[in-house]
Amino acid sequence: MKDLSQAKNFDEFMEGIWRQNPVFVMVLGMCPALAVTVSAVNALAMGFATTFVLVCSCLLVSLMRKLVPKEVRIATYIVIIATFVTVVDYIIQALSLELYEALGAFIQLIVVNCIILGRAEAHASKHPPLTAITNALGMGIGFTIGLFALGGVREILGAGKFFGVSLFGANFQPWVVMVLPPGGFFVLGAWLLLFAALKRRKEAHLAASGDGHGA
Length: 215
Hints:
By secondary structure, the protein is mainly α.
């Protein structure tokens, strides 16, 4: 029974990281994913902030799932999420004003991030705390990985740097478009194309394996 529970929790955790990755599979939270990922640092900061809000709000929603009337559940979830977003907002502002200014209004917009509200409504409100936290943590890490993949590529190509460290020397000519809004769409499209190709390859391999066994 313990092994079964651990396997279920692991499955819940991995759902958001790979099978239902918020950025590359469900294509959710695109506003911050495209707007703040001009550098790896910005991407990680937004990812960690979103993960914190996601885990804390899903925990509280799960704990209160039998107490909140159905008629006001969405409003209640938004108040819970907004509370933790305010906490994150003040923490980032206290730690680094430069980072706070770089992320801008997108910190406050975590409140309306469909990943968080969707997890609260579709999952946390229907599962016990441990399961809700595990699933939320996986989704948060998956979202952070997606942002980092975008931010890392855009910083390398758009500035010739990675975490602010120069990679190619003074003669490198940055691809300025990568730090502009179109660059976010180009990099996201390239990642989505890669994941689609991997998915088709896996399906083709499974189909070939099935045909081989059938023969």
